[in-house]
């Protein structure tokens, strides 16, 4: 599995290189170097895109857990946690469980823990939000590790307003749109919704390398 992921990551970087007619770089530098630069560029561009939309609209389109999501989308694009289904559902579950935990512990109108410090209700909200998020992602089979950070962002009071939920999900959608374009440009069959398991398509891609 590790070897196959390595092959897919290299094909992704190589596909972009070929699309941009930069094949000479691939012949001069190691795979690790090319892939590192590829992730540098795409990680920066994806977050810059979301942050720019946040700047223009002055809305909270950008939040910390998107950084971890961006890394997964461009480093292991064909893994289940990187699929649009897992990414969208995971962050949605995390945000909802964060909001639920705020209401359970009576913190919906309180200032962020980063301003007031952590008290016992906040400890309970943070613990419950992450526990519920992890539980539901397993039950629904939509594992996306960065969603755990989204749950904590909300339950710690950084995004406590339910009206911010559509904006949060729009930020995730923008990131996914960028990942879809770049992965498809590179020749990786990034899914429209759910990634398949280790099927013939992935095996064939690895065999072609």
TrEMBL record:
Chain ranges passing through the membrane: 34-54, 60-76, 88-105, 125-144, 165-186
Pfam hit, one: TM_HPP
Superkingdom of the organism of origin: Bacteria
Alphabetic keyword roster: Membrane, Transmembrane, Transmembrane helix
Protein name per Swiss-Prot or TrEMBL: HPP family protein
InterPro entries per the UniProt record, alphabetical: HPP, TM_HPP
Keyword match Nucleotidyltransferase: no
Organism: Marinobacter fuscus
Domain HPP transmembrane region: 34-191
């Amino acid at each position: 599995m590790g070897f196959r992921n390595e092959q897919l990551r290299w094909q992704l970087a190589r596909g972009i290189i070929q699309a941009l007619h930069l094949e000479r770089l691939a012949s001069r530098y190691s795979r690790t170097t090319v892939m590192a630069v590829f992730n540098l560029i795409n990680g920066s561009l994806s977050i810059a895109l979301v942050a720019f939309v946040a700047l223009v609209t002055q809305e909270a389109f950008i939040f910390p857990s998107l950084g971890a999501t961006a890394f997964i989308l461009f480093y292991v694009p064909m893994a289940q946690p990187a699929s649009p289904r897992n990414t969208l559902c995971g962050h949605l579950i995390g945000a909802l469980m964060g909001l639920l935990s705020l209401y359970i512990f009576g913190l919906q109108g309180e200032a962020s823990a980063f301003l007031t410090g952590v008290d016992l209700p906040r400890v309970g909200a943070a613990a419950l939000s992450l526990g519920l998020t992890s539980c539901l992602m397993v039950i629904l089979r939509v594992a996306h590790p960065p969603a755990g950070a989204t749950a904590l962002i909300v339950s710690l009071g950084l995004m406590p307003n339910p009206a911010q939920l559509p904006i949060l999900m729009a930020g995730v959608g923008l990131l996914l749109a960028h990942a879809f374009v770049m992965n498809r440009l590179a020749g990786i069959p990034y899914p429209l919704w759910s990634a398949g398991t280790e099927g013939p398509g992935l095996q064939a891609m690895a065999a072609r390398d």
